[in-house]
Design brief:
single chain, 549 residues, alpha+beta, 2 domains, 20-stranded antiparallel sheet, 19 helices, 34% helix, DUF3352 domain-containing protein, DUF3352, transmembrane helix, transmembrane
């Protein structure tokens, strides 16, 4: 929520924070000694952790310390990328653990169950200020291993340690050699950590029966909700999304347009997770909607036009209903001056070439659309072997044809272009050409509803590339597509392997040497938006980085 978190805890990587707190706080040994019963404990799920989080929390995150998940993460990439990641991990380990003779895998992972971070509003105010406080809840799954770990830490650092009691529970206040303060309390199998004493005290209150984060019905329901991703690494929960975002926006000077407020009203809660799939990382975000406030659910995109894109398309964005998107933009412009200025500029731009943006341009774009950047074997923009392609579906071919004819006549009259009419595979094609430079744009109707426009290359070259292989036959796209919901609002797709090859053809160091192994391991990225039902909106993104051994 905040860009200026004064607590400092929220800015550290969770694993690093867990290790630093443990490794840098030898005094904790005295706190645990004699208080750790030698038997397994209850698994610390997000909901179990929430039982000791005060009700003033407005969001939380949960990190799974799972051996299988970390094993899967370690398998990503080629040998060089793995070596690069291993080197970086060793550097981190040397700075945080090695000097203390501590191994995360051997000394910490065996007893840490899961880590929750709660984001809490300070008691001085009910809104969300910049100094949001954090409460960390670490599950202790094996108290024997935990005691062995703290035995190992005994006497390793000079610390200032103070002990006090609150509600008959010990709180340790520890200041390390760097001057950093922490407060700890052990609540059964949950170790709670915060920078402020009163945050730990509120956790103790919740543990002993006061209202907690878990007592809120909307929180309990959200924390029980699961995502359809494998090996979840981290999950983020925002239960009262509308209230939380509105309170945050109230602290800014920017006015909030009514349309934006209306969209906030539609969302009740948010759940975000990242999972370690075999093929790569899978991010999934679910917005739980209030069906009574949602006017319409967008129609599923048939994605028929994907078969018209060549297999070497390395950037793709497709969807449906440009006309509806324009109408929504115009509606927003009535309440937002910046958007209104943008809309005016577009209308004025088309007016200069004697076209009405509303009626002659966007109005006929009522079907599917797709934009692709394609690797070509010859020609292309500046002879770099790259070209663009736009495909537009319409139910009003007549209006579309008139608009394209007007654009062509304007280009001929004002830019000294040569206009040539030709035929490719029985399709009538109009080409825009600069003398000595070849085709810069062409268009033709594939059928009565679909017009294809090429950019920086010719219609003929794109059609020839498509005949070799279509995007739907591309193995990389197929793999990513298989992990995304098939009923969606379109795809956004990037083929990193093709982009990497293109960049390597440029002279000089276009990619920093230290980044090459990691970039070479990433095959592609795919994203979709879907609506599983009228009360759920879902975003999925897959970063393909499979093992290449």
């Amino acid at each position: 929520m905040s860009t200026n978190n004064k607590s400092g805890l929220g800015c550290l990587p969770i694993l690093g924070l867990t290790a630093i707190i443990a490794a840098g706080s030898a005094g904790t040994y005295y706190y645990f000694q004699g208080e750790l019963p030698f038997f397994p404990t209850q698994k610390t799920t997000p909901l179990v952790a929430a039982e000791v989080i005060p009700e003033s929390a407005f969001a939380s995150a949960y990190l799974s310390i799972n051996k299988n998940t970390f094993q899967q993460l370690s398998q990503y990439g080629n040998a060089q990328a793995k070596q690069e990641m291993q080197t970086r991990l060793e550097q981190w380990n040397d700075k945080t653990l090695a000097k203390k003779n501590i191994s995360f895998e051997k000394d910490i992972q065996p007893w840490v169950d899961g880590v929750s971070i709660a984001f809490i509003t300070p008691r001085e105010t009910s809104t969300i200020p910049e100094d949001v406080q954090n409460l960390i809840v670490i599950g202790v799954k094996n108290k024997i291993k935990a005691k062995q770990f703290f035995d190992k830490l005994k006497g390793k650092e000079n610390l200032t340690i103070e002990t006090k009691e609150y509600q008959k529970i010990k709180i340790q206040n520890i200041q390390d050699s760097a001057g950093q303060n922490y407060s700890f309390a052990l609540l059964d199998n949950r170790l709670v950590i915060a920078e402020q004493d009163y945050i730990v005290e509120t956790a103790i209150d919740s543990f002993q029966g006061a209202s907690s984060y878990a007592d809120k019905p909307e929180v309990k329901e959200l924390l029980k909700q699961s995502l359809s991703i494998k090996n979840p690494v981290v999950s983020i929960y925002i239960p009262d999304y509308e209230i939380t975002i509105k309170q945050f926006l109230e602290n800014t000077d920017q006015p909030i347009p009514e349309t934006s407020l209306k969209q906030l009203d539609e969302v009740e809660s948010i759940l975000i997770g990242i999972g370690a799939e075999k093929q790569g990382l899978h991010l999934q975000a679910i917005a739980n909607l209030n069906p009574n406030k949602v006017d319409t659910i967008p129609n599923i995109v048939p994605n028929k036009i994907l078969s018209e894109f060549p297999g070497k398309t390395f950037l793709l964005a497709n969807g449906q209903g440009i006309d509806q998107g324009w109408n929504q933009l115009v509606e927003t412009a009535q309440e937002d001056e910046e958007v209104n200025s943008f809309v005016r500029e577009i209308r004025n731009g088309f007016r200069e070439i004697n076209l009405d943006a509303d009626q002659e341009i966007f109005n006929w774009m009522d079907g599917e659309f797709g934009l692709g950047i394609i690797e070509l074997e010859r020609g292309g923009i500046a002879n770099l072997g790259v070209g663009g392609m736009v495909l537009l579906e319409t139910s009003d071919r007549s209006t579309a044809s008139n608009a394209l004819n007007k654009l062509t006549q304007f280009a001929r009259s004002n830019y000294n272009l040569q206009i040539q009419e030709t035929s490719t595979d029985g399709i009538d094609v109009v080409e825009w050409m600069f003398p000595l430079q070849g085709v810069i744009l062409s268009y033709g109707w594939l059928d009565n509803q679909n017009v294809m426009v090429t950019l920086g290359t010719s219609f003929e070259i794109i059609q020839g590339s498509k005949q070799q292989e279509t995007l739907l036959k591309n193995p990389n796209f197929q793999e990513i597509k298989s992990l995304l919901p098939s009923k969606n609002l379109g795809y956004f797709y990037v083929d990193f392997s093709q982009i990497y090859e293109q960049l390597n053809q440029f002279p000089g160091e276009t990619i920093p040497p230290e980044s090459k192994p990691i970039l070479a391991s990433m095959k592609g990225l795919g994203m979709t938006i879907s609506f599983p039902d009228n009360s759920t909106s879902q975003i999925d993104a897959v970063l393909s980085i499979p093992s290449q051994e």
